[in-house]
Amino acid sequence: SIVFSSDRDGIGALYWKRTDGSGEAQRLTDSENPQVPWSWHPDGRDLAIIEKFAGRMWNLVGFQTRMRTGAQRELLQLIPGLAKAEVLRWGSIHRNTYLNSPAVLSAHSAALDDPLLLFAGQLVGVEGYTESIASGLMCGINLARMLVGEEPVLPPEETMLGSLLRYVSGADPKRFQPMNANFGLVPPLMQPVRDKRVKREAIASRALEAMALFLENLSGVPR
After folding, report:
1. 2 pLDDT tier (thresholds 50, 70, 90)
2. How buried is 63 (Cβ within 10 angstroms: 0-12 exposed, 13-18 middle, 19+ buried)?
3. Quick one: which of 156, 164, 172 has its CA closest to 208?
């Protein structure tokens, strides 16, 4: 059968019709909100859909909690404008699933038994959008290098990305936890600096110089 969205009833509901075109289209749901078919389950019996709530459904970002639903309801009702809100999904604890990278991945984030199988993002134990994107970029660079016969590379440890990737592959496997970019990862300056702002500016300047040299010597990947 074919599933499609139609506004024939003035809503944008879901309908199904036989693939041979015979018979009348029949409505699948009775929701008053517009719906769009998304994807079929491989067994063909279940369908994932998107339902549009016309600006009536909102998300509280970062609402992670272990509070019971009753306590959550009492708390939300204290917020101006939410006293009569209908909760569609209660807050819960977000859980990251990640590899024990120091035990199962190489220095360039590849499986130990397959150097061309690379991993990146939160799966390897880096936290944050920028960190995840950067780790994926290095996987792409290294895969391109290895496919033309060159060795994988890592940015210098003086750079934030270089230090983060070294942490991911070199931390103690028994105590490994995800990590985001922070100044505690990078090597200390040769000359100690007391002023925090000046210290961080010096670390950043050193990192930019090291990265510029790394990119200048990088080969095997179009730039």
Report:
1. confident
2. middle
3. 156
**Helical H segments across 57-195, by residue range:** 69-77, 101-104, 129-147, 160-170
Q: Give yes or no for a contact between 173 and 103, defined as CB atoms under 8 angstroms apart.
A: yes
Predicted structure pTM score: 0.62
Answer left, alpha or beta for residue 23, where phi above 0 means left and psi between -120 and 50 means alpha.
left
Inter-residue contact 108 to 152 (CB < 8 Å): yes
Q: Which pLDDT tens digit goes with each residue over 74-86?
A: 988 888 888 888 8
CA distance 14 to 6: 6
Beta bridge partner(s), residue 17: 2
Mean local confidence (pLDDT), 9-28: 82
Total residue count of the chain as it appears in this document: 223
